[in-house]
Amino acid sequence: MALSYRDAVTQLAGVGEKRAAALRDLGIFTIEDLLMDYPFRYQDLAEKRPSETLDGEKVTFKGIVSTAPVVRRFGKKSRLIFGLLVDRENIKVSFFNQPWLAKQIEEGQELAVYGTYQAAQAALTAQKQVPLGADPLTPIYPTSKAIQQKTLRSLIEQAWGQVGGTLPNLVPTALRQKYRLLDKNDQIAACHFPDDQLTAKAGRRSAAFEEFFIFQMRLQLVKLADERYQGQPLPYDAAAIAHFIEHLPFALTAAQQRVTEEILADQAAPRHMNRLLQGDVGSGKTVVAATAMCAAVTAGQQAALMAPTEILAQQHAKGLARLFDQAGVDLRVELLTSGLKAAQRRDILADLLAGDIDIVIGTHALVQDGVAFHHLGLAVIDEQHRFGVKQRARLREGGQNPDILAMTATPIPRTLAITAYGEMEVSVIDELPAGRKPILTRQLAQKQADQAFAFMKEELARGAQAYVVTPLIEESESLDVQNVTQVYQELQAALPDYQVGLLHGRLDKADKDVLMAGFAANEIQVLVATTVVEVGVDVPNASIMLILDADRFGLAQLHQLRGRVGRGDRQSYAFLLADPKTDYGKQRLQALVDSTDGFELAQKDLELRGSGDLLGTKQSGLPDFQVGDPVKDLTMLTIAQEEALALVRQENWDQVPDHQALVTYLSETMAQFRYFD
Length: 677
Ligand code: ADP
Ligand code: MG
Hints:
- By secondary structure, the protein is α/β, with parallel strands linked by helices.
- The chain is built from 22 helices and 20 strands.
- α8 runs parallel beside α9 (285-298).
- The structure holds adenosine-5'-diphosphate (ADP) and magnesium ion.
């Protein structure tokens, strides 16, 4: 029976349960998914002449074997050498540790080999033989340990053999014509089986547009659905809000005032609010959120604040209670985390449902089952890039449709933010509170660690506090704990006059709380920690941030970590200890030394990263794309956004025959739609 592109991959020969599971992990369920799993690069096996090949270039040479192979052995290793006459030049070809090839290579034989060219020696260090007449471009796929390149490639070939030519276009015909995009089947063939770089490029262009377009269609549909929810205008008490702002311990910055007005106006409008508040570390987002929550409460509604970690939730609960208290606003704020005792939790849940709690603060536990509100008017999501779309949807499913205020310190350049978070309005706090002294940042080699510790000791003597951050060693939490514990013990021994604390992800919640409270109260002077202190933690007296193996962190993460200091009156210092090995590593650290402006750093990071670094994209808070690069292809992303927006605004766009494949595809894949988590 002929297969259809919509069949499950398990219909293919050679795909059993195990392989199906591995494919699923790559997001591949159907044959269509498999064929849309495009290569991210190509190994170029196109043959060249030595005269047009650069030194160090990877190349395929085809020629006649001019001298029979000889094998030289040294210990267990071996080197096989023979001459290859390529375009009248004699190239010395070496294969390392494959002595058996000697039997297969004969003088006078025609042969193609792929390897690295050393121009000065007219030599090629060969990686492999290339079958004569092989496809010149070998696609390389993003794979997992569970599935190999070869396997994936042959599955794609098999799938294409079965359903090639039958795939429907997801991008509407009008758009394909307008932007000169390939037909879907040509696009697939061009991406998976290109004859040359030019074809591959054309395929990639069409595939990237398709990817961006589908992404934007999803965003715009979410946005449209949001707009259809009839939000309620919020009749908040303007006088009470003015009173609250007046009685804050500080004056709001102009930027804080501006975004506060934007948010209040949004809340007051009958539209449902879905807004992203962007502001660099330390720019004072919390107080803006507090004002918005206060507004909801004055209108007789409840507000919820969700933080990514328990520590942060704790800190917010305390900080907000203090703010409201100082301003003489009478509110009941409660903390709801998974660390609560069952009885406490039950009471809080009951009071939430009864409407006796005005503001609840918690972690993701807040959107878990069993939490129901009397009338949730506003949900604030702190450090929003760590929060899934699914979790936001869950909030909405709670039957109520609160206004959403998502906050992020991820400094995505504005143009990019607008496209990446296409379904939200964006407010930006682009200034820091006055009087902040820029953090002085130094990069030191690991062997200069003593200098940094000596400096830290001097500052401790002046009453300062310090963070010492140890890196994620591997994808292994126990190794991280081992490492952080060792650093902790060394510091404890070296600083007998001070209290040193140890904070890592494996600690009990209660222990974490005690530690953070101790650090905030200056009972602990030095906090040795893993990246759990990365976001949000606010202890203004801490003025030293010492980061070990700093090159193991991404730029955005380093900026976040550094943002833990420089929050008070003290001159603050950051030390980045690292021996970066790559240019990118060096430039990244230098960028931090040169600038404390998150937006500038984000721009720099994007420039440095260029394309192809999926991890980096993830870290910067941008959605992951498989083919397209949101930085390099920003124009295309913007166009895809405009076109998606125009399409969903067309009446009955989903009834048009030409759009049916797209409609089906979107509805079937919406459930798997995740781009923030
Ligand atoms: P972030 O935007 O990183 O979440 P926070 O809201 O934690 O920043 O604020 C950082 C620190 O700055 C806090 O200690 C806060 O009390 C203080 N702060 C906020 N706004 C102002 C302001 N307008 N003037 C002075 N200090 C402020
Ligand atoms: Mg914050």
